[in-house]
TrEMBL record:
Species annotation: Alkalimarinus sediminis
InterPro entries reported in the protein's UniProt record: Ankyrin_rpt, Ankyrin_rpt-contain_sf
Name assigned to this protein: Ankyrin repeat domain-containing protein
PROSITE patterns reported for this sequence: ANK_REP_REGION (PS50297), ANK_REPEAT (PS50088)
ANK repeats: 684-710
Keywords (A to Z) from UniProt: ANK repeat, Repeat
């Protein structure tokens, strides 16, 4: 592992895990990534899928490999989001950091892994794996001999060289290789070992091999001892922050005479305070830097000086120089600076976005790190690794960051005489002081125009006149040859606008004029256009069709080529899930709004608000969270929101009938909608089938079962960590008709049926 920065990166940890089970092999890309601190988080997900799940599945089967993958992901999430992202490690070297991590954090996850493996595949008790008495492989071979009759039968059929190999394992001459464990089932007489579960046996052998490998490395003995103690004692969790602080407190005195200089810089170079005399701060930075960096233990604080020098350049009006310094500060802070990484990234984003030519490569690296450390969530749904800017960042984000420059660096914090031109980026709603004098160009029916006064939006003129519900002009443009297979710069299409005119769920209310849809749907549509969604709000034609409440509209959009499994809306819904949610609202609107208002403020919810608020609430998830919490405390806001919800409900109930929505659900299912599609709301892992069970829509639930609905599928309750399936949902919500259906199919799912079905 590299000693350049204290926290190991996740690829280093992955490589270590693969070595423990002898599956590292030769992987140049993994070795490259193990030396990087800037990486595409999607590539990490790919590596885990390929090298943890897929490779391990060949050796220990899908059940055990899924447990290992889930535990490894849980470990990385907690490590990256709560340790690396939050706890500064300035002055701590790699060796010291590994001792801290091994002391407690790593141990608790190793223990969790063996406990979960025991629950899934049985085998020796969890405490067995952490004995300090000799070889774990030897102990497991003895356990197999005593507990698995099929093992002894199989060993008796082996040739001498293979028996010698197993004997060498028992003596501890060498650790068994993954390959030798794998082919052990292929040698000897298979007739004698048919009662031996080889997937389980190989999984146990690989675990024992990994434990013995850990015992041989530096710190390994301590890890095993701590794991054994952890199984005995419930309250032995160690605070990583406290352990790191102990190390840092021992070197704090080395700051010496630089301490008052640093305090002055930290206080006076804040972004929001009045300041003057830039030369004085340049001198202070240089003086403090010379003192600090002369100490070997404090050289890692270079990023702090680059960060404050970058601020100084912004305050002085030198944004290009600031950008270069932010790059240095960003790179040196990664896997070292704790929460300061977040502050550096946020400042760097608005600077890089505000350059005359935005630094797109730098912005992409910044966004990758925001996601990797859990400071933000991906804005692009594409799960494939990509170095393209557009595969990581959408245009609206770039404009949002640019428009937020004056929020992060307000005029009051700049040196006297320094000014930046106010950004004309998209912040706040698109406003018109009056209907623009835009005349249709019938000679060029596909002409593109720019509209707006608060900011500009580019679109084909047909889309503009559809938005303004000017039917005669729209009709004439199409007759003159205007194509419907076009989109605006943010993904608006003619078919989407025509459907949104009939959307009964929108506030303010739409005209519901169906002439525009009839006009547009007469034209031939490409598969791409009918499935195009807008960038920011992710409006999607098939979902807009559902929200008309009209089965005939949904049927027509499906006939035009809409994909029923395409995702839309800010929280990535399917049309079927949206449809069933609306059914729930119509059935019990009071409960629907209670549930909506009580929803946890998750990153997905925050991102949804960000996408709808045009930058008014800020650009980071923390900004949005603070805004929402303040609103929830404001009685006037709550009252106003209740009135809007009440009026919206009345409007929806008037135009959206339960029978029609049930028919729409059946149309979507008949078109191939996935009834088991997982969603992030109302809770991560929830499916349309679960929604139907919750609402006791028995006919719909039964139809879904015939279309492959999986009642065993579960989500994990974030509050209790309990797995919840359709049986649990039906019981909790008192869904009597759904419970009757589940009772009828109970015999097919004996392991998942809850005790209430008897």
């Amino acid at each position: 592992m590299s000693t350049e920065y204290p926290y190991p990166n996740p690829f280093e940890i992955l490589r270590l895990v693969l070595r423990a089970v002898d599956l590292k092999q030769s992987n140049k890309r993994l070795d490259e990534l193990a030396g990087k601190r800037k990486f595409d988080p999607r590539e990490l997900n790919d590596m885990i899928e390929q090298h943890v799940y897929q490779v391990l599945a060949k050796y220990m089967g899908p059940l055990a490999s899924q447990v290992v993958k889930d535990c490894f992901n849980d470990f990385l999430d907690e490590y990256l989001y709560t340790v690396v992202a939050r706890i500064p490690a300035d002055g701590v070297n790699r060796e010291e950091m590994l001792r801290v991590l091994a002391k407690g954090f790593l141990v608790e996850h190793i223990v969790a892994l063996v406990v979960q493996l025991h629950e899934k595949i049985s085998g020796p008790a969890p405490s067995f794996w952490f004995s300090n008495q000799g070889s774990t492989v030897k102990a497991l071979l003895e356990w197999l001999r005593d507990k698995e009759p099929g093992w002894n039968k199989h060993i008796s059929t082996l040739k001498k060289e293979h028996k010698d190999m197993v004997s060498a394992w028992a003596r501890g001459d060498d650790l068994p290789s993954a390959y030798s464990i794998s082919f052990l089932s292929d040698v000897g007489s298979s007739d004698e070992s048919t009662d031996l579960d080889w997937q389980k046996t190989k999984a146990l052998l690989l675990v024992s091999r990994a434990i013995d490998w850990v015992k041989r490395i530096s710190l390994g003995g301590g890890i095993i001892d701590s794991a054994r103690v952890s199984l005995w004692e419930a309250n032995n969790k160690i605070s990583i922050a406290s352990e790191i602080y102990k190390i840092q407190s021992c070197i704090q005195h080395r700051l010496g005479p630089a301490q008052p200089l640093i305090s002055e810089l930290q206080h006076n170079l804040r972004r929001t305070v009045n300041k003057s005399n830039p030369d004085r701060y340049r001198h202070l930075i240089a003086e403090a830097q010379a003192m600090i960096l002369s100490s070997e233990h404090l050289k890692s604080t270079q990023y702090w000086f680059d960060w404050h020098e970058a601020r100084l350049q912004v305050f002085s009006g030198n944004i290009e120089s600031a950008n270069e310094l932010y790059k240095s500060a960003f790179e040196d802070s990664l896997f070292r600076a704790g929460e300061n990484q977040k502050f550096i990234i946020e400042e760097a984003m608005v600077v890089a976005a505000s350059l005359p030519n935005p630094d797109r490569v730098f912005l992409k690296d910044l966004k990758w790190s925001l996601i990797s450390f859990g400071y933000d969530i991906p804005s692009i749904s594409n799960g494939k690794p990509s170095s393209k800017f557009s595969d990581t960042i959408e245009d609206w984000e770039l404009k949002l960051w640019k428009s937020s420059f004056s929020v992060i660096f307000p005029k009051t914090g700049l040196f006297p005489g320094v000014e930046y031109t106010d950004s004309q980026a998209e912040k706040g709603p698109l406003l018109f002081t009056g209907k623009p004098e835009i005349k249709p160009d019938y000679r060029n029916p596909n002409r593109k125009i720019k509209v707006g006064e608060s900011w500009k939006k580019s679109m084909p003129q047909l889309i503009w006149f559809l938005m303004n519900e000017d039917f005669e002009i729209s009709k004439k443009l199409i007759h003159k040859g205007a194509s419907v297979n076009v989109e605006s710069d943010v993904g608006d299409t003619p078919i989407l606008i025509a459907l949104e005119i009939m959307n009964v769920t929108d506030v303010p209310y739409k005209s519901l004029d169906e002439r525009f849809f009839e006009l547009i749907c007469e034209q031939s549509h490409t598969h791409e256009i009918i499935n195009t969604r807008t960038q920011k709000k992710r409006l999607l034609p098939i979902i807009s069709a559902v929200e008309t409440g009209r089965p005939d509209i949904v049927k027509k959009v499906l006939e035009l080529g809409a994909d029923p499994n395409k995702r839309g809306d800010t929280d990535e819904q399917t049309a079927l899930n949206v449809c069933i949610k609306r059914i729930g609202m119509i059935r019990n609107s009071e409960y629907y709004w209670q549930h909506q208002n009580a929803m946890d403020i998750t990153p997905v919810v925050l991102d949804s608000v960000r996408r709808h608020s045009q930058g008014v609430c800020g650009f980071t998830l923390d900004h949005i969270s603070s805004h929402m919490k303040n609103n929830r405390k404001d009685p006037l806001f709550s009252k106003r929101q209740s009135l809007i919800n009440e009026q919206s409900t009345q409007h929806i109930m008037k135009h959206m009938k339960i029978e029609s929505m049930l028919e729409i659900a059946k149309l979507l299912i008949a078109a191939g909608a996935d009834v088991n599609a997982e969603h992030v709301s109302p809770v991560n892992g929830h499916t349309p089938l679960m929604l139907a069970a919750e609402l006791d829509e028995a006919d719909l639930f039964e139809l879904m079962l015939t279309k492959g609905g999986d009642p065993e599928k579960f989500y994990v309750d974030p509050r209790t960590n309990k797995k919840i399936n359709c049986w649990d949902i039906s019981e909790y919500f008192g869904s009597t008709r759904t419970k009757n259906i589940l009772r009828d199919i109970q015999r097919f799912f004996p392991s998942s049926s809850s005790s209430f079905i008897s």
